[in-house]
Amino acid sequence: MFRHLKEDISSVFHRDPAARNFVEVLTCYPGLHALLLHRISHWFWGHRLKWLARFLSTLARWFTGIEIHPGAQIGNRFFIDHGMGVVIGETAIIGDDVTLYHGVTLGGTSWSKGKRHPTLNDGVVVGAGAKILGPFEIGTGAKVGSNAVVTKAVPSGATVVGIPGRIITQQDKANVQVQKDMAEKFDAYGLSPDMPDPVAKSIGVMLDHMHAVDRKLACLAKSVREMDASFEDEVLPQLDASDFSAAIEASGEQEQAVKAPDQPK
After folding, report:
1. What is the pTM of this model?
2. Which of 89, 227, 230, 244 is within CB 3.0–4.6 Å of 117 for a Cys-Cys bond?
3. Shared-domain flag, residues 174 and 242
4. How confident is the model over 225-264, as pLDDT tens digits?
5. With helix as H, strand as E and coil as C, how does the chain read?
């Protein structure tokens, strides 16, 4: 128990830059309190003291706002940041060095007995408000973006965003060192600076397709012109890059005006 406590406190310092000292972490982090009480209630659950286990987990929910079923299996160096609204179901399995942010649900989609909740392998990061529903696995080192709803398995090293969850990136399998260092890496809310924008990526794919269609139409027009000299090829209007840059600048100015505080007149 004390070995787990030492590791759990160390994991807070590794993954929360706001943590300042041992006493503050031990007394002011509800995620740590919920985890400590869960380890006790899980011991009761394994020794057939199920009512006592459920009662202790209920007390933990009252005091921390985090609901962890005593039957859930949780590995080492587990970290819940902020924690309010986190729900972890009975048959959930969580590996080592996993990070959850507030509002995360590890839930089930069936009322049948047996495995109903997800399995999170080592080094998984789940962003605020995400929902992972069902008895499937989230692979080692995967990330689930904020407010995503995941209902199927996620491979190792992948990043999932959106409703329903869709994979947008996947790490190279050779890059295993990143997965080993997850306990020392701070990935706020399941995001990283190099995470691609799925909307921008979709627009880029559409533009690539449009360019391919334009090239094909140009080839067809050339072939028709060679067969019929009277064919008149319509000239398409040119896209001016300045139009897009002006729109982007206007959008940026509007965003800054919303963020900036009102100035005295």
Report:
1. 0.62
2. 89
3. no
4. 788 777 776 766 666 655 555 555 555 555 455 445 554 4
5. CHHHHHHHHHHHHHHCCCCCCHHHHHHHCHHHHHHHHHHHHHHHHHCCCHHHHHHHHHHHHHHHCCEECCCCEECCCCEECCCCCCEECCCCEECCCCEECCCCEEECCCCCCCCCCCEECCCCEECCCCEEECCCEECCCCEECCCCEECCCECCCEEEECCCCEEEEECCCCCHHHHHCHHHCCCHHHCCCCCCCHHHHHHHHHHHHHHHHHHHHHHHHHHHHHHCCCCCCCCCCCCCHHHHHHHHHHHHHHHHHHHCCCCCC
Among 87, 88, 78, residue whose Cα is nearest residue 121: 78
Residues 94 and 169 in one domain: yes
One domain for residues 11 and 117: yes
Using the 3D structure, point to which of 157, 177, 195 is the last residue of a domain: 195
Instruction: Report d(CA 205, CA 27) in Å as an integer.
Output: 50
Assess whether 17 and 145 both reside in one domain: yes
Cβ contact 149:131 at 8 Å: yes
Alpha-carbon separation of residue 190 from 91, 167, 199 (angstroms): 23, 13, 18
Q: How many domains does the chain have?
A: 2
